[in-house]
Amino acid sequence: MPSKDGALRAQKPPQIAAICVLYALAFWPTANIRAEGEPAEDFLKRLRAAGYFDIAITYLDRLDDYPGVDAKLREAIALEKAHTFIDSAVVARTATARDESFLAAEQQLTEFLKLPSHPRLSEARLQLGKLQMVRAAQLMAGKVDDEKRKAARESYLAAAKTFDEIVNNLREELKAMQGQKIDAAKEPEKAAQRDTYRAEFLQGQLNAGESRRLAARTFDDPAKDGKNLLDEALVSFTDLSDKYDGYVQGAIAMLYRGQVMQDLGDREKALDSYIRMLEQPEADPLRDAKFQATSGLIQLYLTDKEPKFDQAIDRGQPILDTARPDEKRSQSVQQLRVDLAKAYLAKAADKSQKPPDAKRAQTNGRQLLFAASKVPGTHLSEAETILADLGISKEDEVELPKAEDPKSFAEALQSAIQLYEAAEALQKNLTTIEKDAKAIEQVKELQKQLTETRAIAVMILSRGMSMVTVETDVESINQARQLLAYLLFQEKRYRESAVVGSFLALQSPGNDTGLRGGLIGLTSLQYLLTEAGDQDNTGLIGQLRDLGEYLTKTWPNDPQAAVAQGIMIRLALGKDRWDEAKQLVAKMPSGSERASYERLMGQLLWNKSVMSRQDGDEEQAKSLLNEAQASLDAGLKGTDGKLVDPEALQAALVLAKIYMRLEKDKEALETLDNSKFGPLKLVDKQGAPSETFKSDLYATELQAVVSRMTSPEGDAEKLLDRATSAMENLRKSITGDDAQAKLVPIYMGMARNIREQLDSAPPDRKTKLIDAFRVFLDRIAQSSQDPDTLLWVGQTLSQMGESAMAPGESVASGQAKDLVTSAVETFENLKANAKDLPLTVDYQLGRSYRLLGRYKDAVEVLANILTQKPMMLDAQVEAATAYEQWAGTDPARAGLIYKAALAGTRPNPNHPKKENTIWGWGVISQRTSGNPKFSEMFFDARYHVAKCRFLMGSANKSEQEMERAVSDITQVAALYPEMGGAAKRQEFDALLKEIQKRLGRKPEGLPPMK
Amino acid sequence: MNTTFQQIASLVLRCCLAMVLSAFACAPAFAQLDRVYTLNSSTAISGQIQNVTKSGVTIKSGGNTQDIAADQIKKILFEGDPAPLTNGREFALDGQYDQALPLLTSLDPTSLKREIVQADAIYYRILSQGELALAGKGDKKAAAAGALAFVGKFSDSWHFYSAAKLLGDLALATDSYDAAMKYYGSLRSAPSVESKIQSVYLTGLALLKKGELDAASIEFDKVAGLSVQSVEAARLQKLAKAGKAMAMAKIGKTKEGIELVKTLITDLNATDVEVAAAIYNAQGANYEAAGDLEGAVMAYLHTHLMFSSDPRMHAEALAKLAQLWPQVGKPERAAEAKQELQQRYPGLAG
Q: ipTM for the complex?
């Protein structure tokens, strides 16, 4: 038996959430969802849904043929058959077939209930009881004689007995469970079972009472002949409503109490119960009971000596107006319509009413009866009888419009507002239900309702707008326009919402309604623009700009209007109109809105700066960098002191990167640490704006900290600790099974960034930076066994070494040699101590060997890579470079080695055509030819083809080969006059001149470009 | 009422701001923003695609460069994708080929500046054409010609092997078994182990359709006997076992076939529609061959009612049901099955 001490019971009135949860539990499917094996439960459902009941029964008979079926389901075959027969009965085309199916279902349920124990026994009993009630109700439908009444009564009483058994059994089960003191956290299955039992216990008690009440109603005079039954029912309902009003069943019992009292003729107590039912809190599971309670109230008001039709209408109409689209076809709402119609008709018949009021009341009553007569159910004969009494047959009925025609503009507005509020409530429900992955059908149903509700609201409002007269209040008209614009917007009818919203803005300059209309219009136009994609959208942009300008001019000081300005800025930025964007931002009033655009612009300027640098335009890159810094600085300082959005964290990170570029490492760290917008301070609180943000952040911090180590004012030890910690944070920021795969490219990227930082540093600072990084890397190498970290250390050492090499130097010396040697040692140790290393390690090792002039080692390692991955272009280039440089150091074999660099070497025995493992420059140029993405690599390869051919010719003293080198160059010049850009062309030109000189010709170089 | 309208206004403002800010909130600082979505992550890798091969793509993201294998790529969104491509691609990926095709056909690939984007647009077009044709809603030969042109022109596309498989499927659907085996065979050159396994499985399938049942069984056994490491490979093993069970039905070894299917059902993942449908169709074939028509109907009903989103498997099940229903005394249901077959898969209704 449920405890009275439960949290749900503790508060009055009942907690709505608890009510909903328990209500859901009462109908929660008991079947488990299985991940493996025959999906028997699902297949059964599908068979039933498709109407293949015979196959479903056969399938259940041969369920043993299928592996992996849950033992509980096998034990419940009779129950499943009963469900199948019930479903079959529901769609049976003849009464005989239906009766046969119900009978078969009852037999199966009885069979199942013979089991000594099964978790679904109470479910079966509930089903059996409901089945007995359905059969009784069938007997009471249509024309009823004494024999049928008797049979129906017996069926109701059998149902009551079934429900009593459920209650008694579950009371014992629950008592036993109470003794076990189940901890829901530790034993969730037991706790769920207990909740199910509790819900079934209450439902059983409610149904037992209801069966007795209905059994009493099979008598001609229930109050007299069925008094005992009604008294028994009343005991059940009173017990439930007094003890369990924190549960749905307890709350609904109040309605049934009222109905029993009404049957017993105790008007006052019935009235009290109905009113108490209506005073229950708003909760979906109670809505139907409230419609029924309202019906009861109306019936009581109308049976008074002097019928209180006004009170009945005042009670009934507002509740009926709240009926949702799905409720409008429920049995309870139809009964309410009929009862309310009776109240209206009573009013119409009242002689004291003014003729227009009486006529309106009759119209209302008639419309309600029409609506009710459209839906099948037990109310139908009463509705049709009253209509017939009014002299109206069903055939006279005019087809109701989809959206009922409003009588006036005011009524349309009121209806539309109600529908809008209903839609909002639906939207709220939808948002909640959408979180439940299993509730797909419910979600679909709610979405359908939502769309229908909004569509009806739009239709009513549109019709209402055509009823506006000169006397209609302007404010109401504008409210209607605003609501219409918004509903159209919600319906995704953006063209229409843009038109209505813009019109409203133009009609109501300066006031709030106009501004809101304008904003709806503006947003709609934006959506249209997004939908249009890359299609010609000049017209839309024009409209957007006009409306935006109008809003900012008309509401100049309104921060909401600044949104319009923002859209124009975005448009300008989207089209690279920087100056226009800057002017628009400058015009914005100070505040968070303006700051957000300054941040946007700053980040876009940074992008532009990066692009300019890639294009080789350093001057423009620098200028854009300064502009980006100013814009981001202003944008971040303009944050209003509240918690910033993740977007601002991204902006701060970009600003820190800019400071690093500008060699302002102190400012970079201050930006990252800033208490208001610093990502290091806020990222955990605010969340990262993107998946890669944290790794990018810690990598930037690391670089900034190491740079600070070069400054005399920095505390070296403290900074070293911080760098180590940043490195650790970086490693932790990458998680998941593929963490290693993600870390490697990040580390590589960091190494490249450090190299770029070194390359752009003046010589004295470069030396200091290298020293600082070296100290840091040594510490990391000593303290870490992590292969990815060590790979990064090696990579960084190698990159630093390369950066320390003098221009034109192919073999490292001095500080560079030390660095590259350390890199080699790191890679070699890594290879010796770790398994399954990525090929990147070999690639880096091969490259480092080359930088040290250890060409033989280099080509061995690289050939090994290329055997496994021939398409690794970087490794192919590296191998060709190694051979080319090697040839320069071995005059005796230079011709041979240049040939390897040029034409490749090491035929692959596994390749069908024995293609060389190392391609050489010739094949590299072929494979990269014609692909714009490899354009740079292609021209570089062609240059080295010519160079190797020339040097090979020199080594072999072959003028013919040198001539071919000339034609290698002139051929490229003829086919690609720009030769990969000015710098590359210059290299080709210089090489050609040198060859021409060696051939004893005038060094004319390339002909000028035409 | 005022509250209501304040709520509206506040909502609209939020919408406006969200739209405006979203343009840069997620925009990392890159020159060109392509977005690569992989199978095992819901977030995209944003950056600049630098290299494309049959095996995959290389993307530069910030200062980092990474290679992504073709069979790990879910989709790539390119900067400046025109709307028909964006929408058409999504429809195609969602299996809504009839929605995708008009959009992708409306697009002139030569208007796309980047070759990789051209290849992408053409691939999804030929994929949609091909899948529709395979579902009986289009001309298979025309679809095959389109796919063939694609692999000829874009032999370095990361879609290359998918297009080769499509060619194989189309050849199989037109009973060109040797051609199908040739195309399926090309998947063995793909870098991933799973593609190589798929190649063997599909070859077995082609042999099965050709009627070379022993040879088909050998191919299926090759796959079934592997020690696999990945989910996808394990999935292919199940398909191969279902293929083997189908071969057993045709050979007449129905007892063994039914037992094999049972082992597959024991380990069934009902969310993998293609595999589940293949298993139940194999069960149907074995029951039918064994004379258990009721069992066969139930097996094909599994595919029809639960795993119908794979058009080829579903069409096969419907065709079988149309034959079997009259034999179990339900001719009206046979008519329903035929009607559904004709409506959903007109070219496969026979």
A: 0.80
